Amino acid sequence: MATDYRVPVEPEMETLDINVNVGPQHPATHGVFRMILTVDGELVKDLDPVIGYMHRGNEKLPENCDYRQAIGYHDRTDYLAQFNTEHCFVQAVEKLGNLPVPERAEYIRVILAEMNRMSSHLMFLGAFGTDIGLFGTSFMYAFRDRETIQDFFEEITGERMMYNYFRPGGVAWDVPENFEARCEQVLAKVKRGLEDIDGLMMENEVVLARCRGLSTVSPEDAINWGLSGPMLRATGLAHDLRRAEPYSIYDRFEFDIPTGRQGDVYDRIVVRLEEMKQSVRIVEQALEQMPDGPIMAEGMKRILRVPAGEIYMRVESPRGEYGVYVVSNGSDKPYRHKVRGASFSNLSALRAMSVGRYVADVILILGSIDIVLCEVDR
Amino acid sequence: MIAGNAWVDALVRMGIIGALVPVSVIVLTWVERKVIGRMQMRLGPMRVGPYGTLQGFADTIKLLTKEDVRPQTADRWTFELAPFVIVVPTLMALVSLPFTADLFVRNLTLGLFYIVAVSGLSIVGFVMAGWGSDNKYALIGGIRAAAQLISYEIPLVMAVLAIAMIGQTLNLSEIVAKQHNVPYIAYQPLTFIIFTIAGLAELYRQPFDIPVAESEVVGGPFVEYSGIRWSMFQLGEFVNLVLISILGSLIFLGGWRWPIGGDAPVIAQFALMFVKASVFILFFMWMRASLPRLRIDQLMAYCWQLLLPFAFLQIVINGLVLVYDWPSVLLTVFSTIAAAAAIWLTYRVAQQSGVRYQPGFDRVGSVL
């Protein structure tokens, strides 16, 4: 029997760690995410994330729908980047079925996807402002511009949230006649609004003091954890699927990939802010190049059957790599349908980034991951 | 003297202030929502009454008629007494606070000391609320409140002490009278800055709303309270806001004296005080709408490492000038230099923690 030779120390006062349950209904969890914090005073000693409150079978349900019906489930998977997710699934079906896509439809898709990226990042900036304690000012600033984008989307698709607009082989219907003029209006507003948010948050000493150097992530760790999107680019790796494997027509546009230097929370905000500016550039170029023509491929069948086979298609969604794995057995329904959500992988790094930090920091780290719980739980 | 008998006189005066305070709180909640609404490109309350002016009254009625819920596991007396422990000291402090040359309950010789001493008591209420709620958020919030409020009490007291040294009195009316020509902010810019920051922290408003941080501890000590008890916390917060604002305008901005002199009619004096206090209140609201929250360790470090040493420095400066009878313009000079140093140090700390740099832009593409 091993003997403990250490002199027993009688502590004068015993302190206990307490477990604090944050979520699933808490202002800072951005949805129904729950984390059980073990705190020693203000220091977080352990963090136990609990997910699954939002599970709705978004991967299984499309296996009972035909390929066009399944698009709607991708709106609901990442409800802040609906066009990006639709884009992913639609391209997967097109590649599997060898369907041609008209030029005009491609341009409409890219424009909408990039605008969706802006609106998603605006949502992030607004929500992050409330996380850091900005009493709703950043939220209102961001939502002013997000509303203009939402209104624009509503004019095109008739929906504010679940657009269901892309189709295999094109888009559901043509855009309104004033599309380009409205697009430029929205871009002008967003550009001005970005400067407002930039001035409100980014140079603020409190924001700098809170976010600089918080939860720095090295590029190696980022790759090992499977981080993607702004979380990965904040570490300094310029990995963007729009550039790495240009899908759709992204190879025709000139844009930069903003990267951070140390992968801290501040870098993640800066990367997202700069990404929005790049999205503006892409939309402007796309508007210039956009041709007239059909918006749906010729000879699309009423019931879409794709040949047997399997495909993994991935796109750069605002949160990172959003992937769809589709197996077809030749019928009108996917045989297997699997989603790779960027939020899930990014969230998996939360514990490693948070332990040893202050409670207030954990809220910021969680906010900076920019999770969408629907995408995590699916 | 309003009435002949001294007791009746005091009661009448307390009645006036006791009636004014809740009304001013109701109005202030409306003003705050409107002001912050404007800053956030919103309208603020618009539905109840013209421009939402009756919103505060509607909210009050709602809060008064709401069920007073107490968690089953709460420590009953601690829980139920905590709102009173917070509200009563702030109302007690109003007793010796002169609003104009005539409008006060009792002009105490030790008025400044009394106000600082009494308003410090309400910290106990936060700890009681945090402990008695039997809620972990409330507990964390209560302990945060204790740490923050006690820490910032010290620079606040030091700032007040520096003013008392200059004024050579603790009587607020006399302090105001001595600012007949020059308000003390001209002599004591550093003290003014310390007082404003520490006062902001005492009010636990942004950027110092750590005890009640909405995104972290969801309202902190108040999380389990509802209805009338919650509104008492709100009352205490806004009375404190008025208290700090009036105190600041009395001891720094020359109260009702500067620049209209002591012989002006009561209405003019009151209007002057109203304007000066409003400047403070609007400043606090502006800060609330535009600044994010600090972290608790940064907050404490700022208090103990920067505010407190500079408060002591100001007292040393005042002592030297008073003991050697140097001209009072030297006070201005020294205090301004020290204030500049304090501001520079504040910014340097923020800059050290990190500067903004341009993000890298990559045109090549993936490195994976």
Describe this structure in words.
- The complex is a heterodimer of chains A (378) and B (368).
- By secondary structure, chain A is an alpha+beta fold.
- Chain A has one domain: Orthogonal Bundle (Cytochrome-c3 Hydrogenase, chain B).
- Chain A has helices at 71-77, 82-97, 103-131, 137-157, 179-202, 205-211, 219-225, 230-233, 241-244, 265-289, 342-347, 350-354, 359-369, 373-377; strands spanning 18-22, 34-40, 43-50, 166-167, 170-171, 257-259, 309-317, 320-328, 334-340.
- A 3-stranded antiparallel β-sheet of chain A has the order 1-2-3. Chain A has a 3-stranded antiparallel β-sheet with strand order 7-8-9. Chain A has a two-stranded antiparallel ribbon with strand order 4-5.
- The longest helix of chain A has 29 residues, at 103-131.
- Chain B is mostly helical.
- Chain B contains 13 helices and 1 strand, in the order αααααααααααααβ.
- Chain B has helices at residues 6-39, 55-65, 76-94, 111-119, 122-132, 136-167, 172-178, 184-187, 189-202, 227-251, 266-290, 296-323, 329-353; one strand at 360-362.
- Chains A and B meet through β1, α3, α4, α5 and α6 of A and α6, α11, α12, α13 and β1 of B.
Strand content of chain B: under 5%
Q: What's the end-to-end separation of chain A, in Å?
A: 51 Å
Strand content of chain A: 5-15%
How many strands appear in the DSSP assignment of chain B?
Answer: 1
Q: Which protein chains make the most extensive interface, counting residues with beta carbons within 8 Å of the other chain's beta carbons?
A: A-B, 62 and 52 residues
Would you state the CATH class of chain A?
Mainly Alpha
The overall average pLDDT of chain A, rounded, is: 87
Helix and strand succession of chain B? HHHHHHHHHHHHHE
What structural class do the secondary elements of chain A suggest? alpha+beta
